[in-house]
Amino acid sequence: MTFRVGVIGGGQLARMMVPPAIELGIDIRVLAETEGMSAAIAATAVGDYTDLGTVRAFARDVDVITFDHEHVPQAVLRALVEEGVAVHPGPDALQFAQDKLRMRERLGELGIPMPDWARIETPAELDAFIADHGGEAVVKTARGGYDGKGVRVVSSAAQVEEWFFALDEDGRGGALLAEEKVEFSRELAQLVARRPSGDVTLWPVVESVQRDGVCAEVFAPAPRSAGRVAEMAARIGTTIAEELGVTGVLAVELFETTDERLLVNELAMRPHNTGHWTIDGSTTSQFEQHLRAVLDLPFGATGHVEPWSVMVNILGGPADGDLDAPVVAASADQPTAKIHLYGKEARPGRKIGHITVSGEELDEVVFQARAAAAFFQD
Amino acid sequence: MTFRVGVIGGGQLARMMVPPAIELGIDIRVLAETEGMSAAIAATAVGDYTDLGTVRAFARDVDVITFDHEHVPQAVLRALVEEGVAVHPGPDALQFAQDKLRMRERLGELGIPMPDWARIETPAELDAFIADHGGEAVVKTARGGYDGKGVRVVSSAAQVEEWFFALDEDGRGGALLAEEKVEFSRELAQLVARRPSGDVTLWPVVESVQRDGVCAEVFAPAPRSAGRVAEMAARIGTTIAEELGVTGVLAVELFETTDERLLVNELAMRPHNTGHWTIDGSTTSQFEQHLRAVLDLPFGATGHVEPWSVMVNILGGPADGDLDAPVVAASADQPTAKIHLYGKEARPGRKIGHITVSGEELDEVVFQARAAAAFFQD
């Protein structure tokens, strides 16, 4: 008589689903890739998520399967669905998060604003696209990229030569995605949750600051977004969630252009770094809402409890790997800072935690969050 | 290099320490009394907390031992301390929570305001106390009582006859505690946390409403408490925490009398039902602060994030034992309600969860919290 959720993947997103599961009385189980991962406290199984037998056995004792990441193969997902397992988000939606070319094609059909793009099969096609777009293009592998991996800004096809070799070797008729390099004034993100029964709920649109292709800071709500920008972002997020049949949390990363348009950059069909502020800053966090969504429970309220929340990622961590001293120092210096650590070892560039501060004055909140996070970085 | 906390006792208080431990990156381990308890997700051991060998083995792999309850015998606690184990709160402080007569004696020495009381060894002494206090007294067993158990309002010693028999059989020179029945206008509670290094932090004083000796509702902060009442409560709480050497969270239950005095009713040296609102309503919850305190980490901020929070206990639960349907109904009806379930089966009178709502208007917040909780009760 208890709701049971099975999460595939043992990373920090699975880890952060555990606290709201405990509070709501949900029995949460994690299929982790290896021992000792971020979500180890709830890891009831360790195994290969590309192996149908492993995933099928894990799915046997839960009400619904959901994900820490988007890498479970379509064949595995479709086999589960055929066997009657509830999978949210399902394979029909996930294919658009797994394949950026399919995503661009589908968003195009829906008339969603996005950068100019093209399917690229040969270096000549890429060079032509570059020539048509001011001598530069953003090239992406269709699959497997995240946090800036599989993304390159190039001025010549030769700069992604090995990606073309890889396509040839793969031999499955794959292609690269080329996009215009958008002149944006800032990046925004719209977080949405949708239930299988159809309800959609949204948090306020946020501003995200990226460094080296990785989310560094998030301001919630996005400054100067009230009104038109917030409405556009909400409409885009709702349309994508509904038309792609997303269930669970969806994050839509957006460019705000210098001429005040919003263009869709990337999609993620899971809780997302740009939504971590909701743990402390919203009545219902993205992690609780994701659990509610995949179980088809009514949504919690998504208002922000203080006027501003700012999240700063802890990237890499201290060189000596000691996270205890920074916890002490950051706590003493910034008692309003909410410290979140992922149980991961410090390593250059790695997301090992984040800090959120909420309050009434944006300047103060930004200062406090950055000051606390600075203790975790050399 | 990770902070490790061992919690003795697997009830809901241990359970609610798990989410902040996960967020802060603390390795939390629980010694549970049996399998399948509230804190099962963190239960790394199951055993008898009155057995020194069991507790010693559990303590070996943690930095500090703390508690879900106050029932670990002094002999066990003192043996651990002698062996160099960090125990918070320590036995010197815990004795006052374990023995109400010692507590009254010590508070008397400190000049803390409290009801008239007496140490009672014979029925004749109790009848004399009753006669001196308007024909009524509150009689308590010195040890082992909680949630109204071990407490009786009597007009004659004959009404606690079996407690005197038990004292005689025990043969250790025990005694009962008699207290005047205070004419109070309401009950308040002051939540405090203190670190081994001496820092003390407080949350706003709250009003608690008891039914049948059990906490039913909490209003935070206590209405009409700003100024004098809040200052008195804070002074009493701070004095007790410091003078009794409490480490961790301390809850001081208070009577506010019709003539506007505050009298100490009970003490609890652990997170407390009157502090559950802090999970959703304060920047730092009592559970996170307790972990910080026992690890001697700097405290988090204790401000309330919205003007009002109201907590309503879920007592007993539905007769059919099904908690899924109430979760659905309460969520649909009251999306601002934060639902907390303890993983316990419904049983008459049992605390199986609580609801907290926070917001700007007290009337609305009370209504929403009660409406949500009502779905869990027949």
In short:
The structure is a homodimer of 378-residue chains. By secondary structure, the first copy, chain A, is α+β, with helices and mostly antiparallel strands.
Q: What do these coordinates show?
A:
2 copies of one chain form a homodimer. With 378 residues, the first copy, chain A, is α+β, with helices and mostly antiparallel strands. Chain A has 3 domains: 4-87, Rossmann fold (3-Layer(aba) Sandwich); 116-179, 2-Layer Sandwich (Dna Ligase, domain 1), CATH 3.30.1490; 184-374, ATP-grasp fold, B domain (D-amino Acid Aminotransferase, Chain A, domain 1). The first copy, chain A, has helices at residues 12-24, 52-59, 74-82, 91-98, 100-110, 123-132, 161-170, 228-243, 278-281, 286-294, 324-333, 362-374, and strands at residues 4-8, 27-32, 43-46, 64-67, 117-120, 137-141, 151-154, 176-179, 184-194, 200-202, 206-211, 214-220, 248-257, 262-268, 308-315, 338-341, 351-359. In chain A, the strands form 3 sheets. In chain A, strands 9, 10, 11, 12, 13, 14, 15, 16 and 17 form a 9-stranded antiparallel β-sheet that branches. A 4-stranded parallel β-sheet of chain A has the order 3-2-1-4, sandwiched between helices. Chain A has a 4-stranded antiparallel β-sheet with strand order 5-8-6-7, with helices on both faces. The radius of gyration of chain A is 21 Å and the shape is globular. The mean pLDDT of chain A is 95. Chain A binds chain B through residues 1-3, 15-16, 18-20, 22-25, 41-42, 279, 283-284, 292, 297-301, 303, 305-306, 321-324, 327-328, 331-332, 335-336, 338-343, 353, 358, and chain B through 1-3, 15-16, 18-20, 22-25, 41-42, 279, 283-284, 292, 297-301, 303, 305-306, 321-324, 327-328, 331-332, 335-336, 338-343, 353, 358.
